[in-house]
Amino acid sequence: MPELSEELLEQLLNLVDRLRAETTGFLEEPGDQQVWYNRGYANGMVLALRRLDCAAQLGDRRPDDVDRLSVQMAMPWGKAYRHGETVGSQEIEEITGIQPT
Predict the structure, then answer these.
(1) Which of 6, 25, 34, 63 is 20 to 30 A away from residue 40, measured at CA?
(2) How many CA atoms lie within 13 A of 59 on its CB side?
(3) Is residue 1 part of a domain?
């Protein structure tokens, strides 16, 4: 399996960090679908990188706690989160050209 270049991985991790920093209080902002989408996008990136065997490089970046989010998923902002998560994950796979193991 091809490996991610260190430069690309660093760029992706920087994007995860930026999106997470911008969405730190997303749970307190129900109704702000853009914030929830961005948080979901970052989470999708983390999930995809884990599937691509990049867990060591992720360090302390963990997926969001699904138990904390489950009650929100039926709401419009929860759906925005899920959509962002799906897109973030798919785009990591497209950018890297690596299919998950």
Answers:
(1) 6
(2) 6
(3) no
Looking at residue 8, its pLDDT comes to 93
Asked whether residue 14 is assigned to any structural domain, the reply reads yes
Query: Tokens at residue 70, please?
Result: 């489950």
Q: Could you tell me if residue 40 is inside a domain?
A: yes
pLDDT lower than 70: segments of the chain: 1-2, 99-101
Around 33, how many Cα atoms within 13 Å sit in the side-chain half-sphere? 8
Report which of 3, 2, 80 is spatially closest to residue 44, judged by C-alpha positions. Answer: 80
**Exposure string (b/e) for 21-59, b if CB count within 10 Å is 16 or more?**
eebeebeeeeebbebbbbbbbbbbbbbbbebbebeeebe
Number of domain units in the chain: 1
